[in-house]
Design brief:
Elements: E1 10-18, E2 21-28, E3 33-40, E4 45-51, H1 56-61, H2 63-69, E5 81-82
Parallel strand pairs: 4-5
Antiparallel strand pairs: 1-2, 2-3, 3-4
């Protein structure tokens, strides 16, 4: 009998890091949802943005512009800012 190993539901499609800022483009296989997650190690700020398939790379390359246009307060360090109910996390 063949053993089937389920795929992790969250897949990292792209990531980049520079000057303490990490940006990841994530895809949820189950919901077919694409998100961009941003972490600023210097300020402790974290936020996520939903992305459509046709603009996911643009959101990935310009997350602060998209956050500002959506009214996401990414400058607050007391709580994570997202435009979603549940933040996506990669399985460790």
């Amino acid at each position: 009998m063949a053993v089937i190993t389920p795929l992790q539901p969250i897949c990292e499609l792209a990531s980049r890091a520079s000057n303490g800022i990490e940006v990841a483009l994530l895809w949820n296989r189950r919901s077919d949802e694409v998100r961009v997650c941003v972490t600023d190690a210097h300020s402790g700020v974290y936020f996520e943005l939903a992305a459509e398939r046709d603009n996911a790379l643009d959101v990935f390359h310009h997350p602060y512009a998209y956050a500002a246009s959506r009214g996401i307060a990414y400058g607050q360090t007391d709580a994570a800012s997202t435009d979603t109910e549940q933040p996506l996390r990669l399985a460790a």
